[in-house]
Write a structure and sequence with these properties.
The protein is mostly helical. The protein has 20 helices and no strands. Helix 1 (2-30) packs antiparallel against helix 4. The N and C termini lie far apart (55 Å).
Length: 475
């Protein structure tokens, strides 16, 4: 019996490993080792002297994800500033986050169907844009940290609700409670960057809710919840102070006020949110191609978005109706986190006055956490309710999960088909970059996807050429 249990655990860990290899294979099939887009800004800001402390100790240091400084040194010294190295780091970090989910499914015995559904969705190519842009590798690392922190609280909360059994469990509880106080400082100030807002908000919301629930049941307050909350908020405040010194670039923003925008298009916000929800079923490019073939306008897009919204509502219903948050708080944290990310992207991107903007693949990493919470909630609900309440509720829940998984499998298949085309496109970028001295300003900005001045593109490529890095490395 013990051997079968150990074998099952090993198979559980194998799935995130396979997902990591899948991402790496996709990176090699769909990309070239060439700088473009955000790399131009990074090169101009930090290269060639990556050892210069003046480039590290800057007023807005905490907005620049300090873990990048160490990684940049390693990349330059050993890999001559390879974008492929960055992308593979992102895939490995995504695998680490997947491992956290596997640990959760093992701890809570969610069952193989729920686990596999979560993993299929987790390693979808709905976030291809981030996977193929190496500058975002540290975001994947940050999300692994977020998942780990939330998993730790799930374990601590479970022991707090059910009681501690034995000295070994008591020692583990003490260790994990110390980690709850340390992790926000490391994650928020070291690697999270702009993503720390939603992460911290969920911590405050959940710690506050658990504090009140625990106080109500035990008739005495447990102020450790407030300490954990403070350890999450203080690093966030430090980040915001640092962020006040940052200079941001927004290409394409209209500059109009929110009143002007909504006065002309009061449906912008609802459309933005519904379309962003729909992107969790199909990726933007795949969905738009699909809609174009159907010739049905955006009707299907809105239906998919409403289906995802229904899944959110139903999962919250199960959480409240069955009090699943007492059994495990982790899925509810993911649901709150995903919903909050949709709102935060809207708050940050309405300035472009384009309701399609929230569908971009670059936001899938943020949005997908809510869907994972939904899948895990449905799994726990089925387990907790036995035969469930009604056959209709069971059918609706399963149908919603199937729609989401089916759309993501379709997206992944289409993105795999496009891999060779993306690689060919990247090869064209490389040729333009190699020929940067002769190319026109328009060609440089178009191909390298950086619209903040061709002189910045040329300066960045000059740095690489002088150092013989990246595409100028030769044999």
């Amino acid at each position: 019996m013990e051997k079968e249990k150990n074998r099952g655990s090993r198979l559980l860990y194998l799935v995130p490993l396979l997902g990591t290899f899948f991402y790496i294979a996709y990176i090699l099939a769909a990309t070239q080792d060439v700088v473009y887009t955000d790399y131009i800004r990074l090169i101009n800001s930090y290269l060639p002297d990556v050892w210069n402390p003046a480039k590290f100790f800057v007023p807005d240091i905490l907005t620049r994800m300090p873990v990048n400084y160490l990684e940049r040194i390693i990349n330059v010294v050993f890999f001559h500033y390879s974008t492929t190295f960055d992308m593979i780091l992102g895939a490995v970090s995504m695998g680490a986050a997947g491992l956290v989910l596997a640990l959760y499914c093992r701890d809570r015995k969610t069952g193989p169907a729920c686990f596999l559904a979560a993993m299929v969705f987790f390693f979808s190519l709905n976030k291809w844009e981030m996977i193929t842009n190496g500058t975002g590798w540290c975001h994947f690392l940050a999300f692994a940290g977020f998942y780990w922190h939330y998993l730790l609280w799930d374990r601590v909360w479970g022991r707090q609700i059910n009681g501690i059994k034995g000295e070994k469990e008591n020692a583990q509880d003490r260790r994990e409670r110390r980690l709850l106080m340390v992790l926000p400082w490391l994650i928020t100030l070291g690697t999270a960057g702009p993503y720390c807002g939603a992460y911290t908000a969920v911590l405050v919301l959940i710690y506050g809710g658990c504090f009140l629930l625990d106080w109500k049941e035990k008739k005495r307050p447990d102020f450790r919840h407030l300490i954990y909350g403070a350890c999450g908020v203080i690093p966030m405040i430090l980040y915001l102070i640092s962020n006040s010194f940052a200079v941001t670039e927004h290409a394409g923003a209209t500059g109009r006020s929110i009143a002007q925008v909504l006065g002309d298009n009061f449906m912008l916000f609802p459309k933005f949110l519904i379309k962003s929800l729909a992107s969790m079923v199909m990726g933007e490019e795949v969905l738009m191609d699909f809609l174009a073939r159907l010739d049905k306008g955006m009707a299907l897009c809105y239906l998919l978005g409403l289906a995802v919204l229904l899944a959110y509502i139903l999962s919250i219903y199960w959480q409240i109706r069955l009090k699943l948050y007492r059994q495990s708080i982790f899925p509810l944290m993911l649901i709150f986190w995903g919903g909050l990310n949709h709102l935060l992207v809207l708050a940050a991107r309405w300035i472009f006055e384009n309701s399609d903007y929230g569908m971009s693949s670059r936001y899938a990493l943020q949005y997908q956490v809510g869907i994972l919470g939904i899948i895990l909630t449905f799994g726990l609900a089925r387990k907790a309710a036995g035969r469930w309440f009604t056959q209709a509720a069971k059918v609706i829940s399963l149908l919603l999960v199937c729609i989401i998984l089916g759309g993501n499998l379709y997206t992944t298949g289409k993105e795999l088909d496009k891999a060779s085309d993306r690689k060919a496109y990247a090869a064209n970028i490389e040729q333009v970059a190699l020929n940067y001295r002769q190319e026109s300003d328009e060609e440089l900005e178009t191909w390298l996807q950086y619209h903040h001045g061709p002189e910045k593109i040329r300066h960045a490529l000059e740095i690489l050429e002088e150092q013989k890095w990246n595409i100028f490395g030769g044999e």
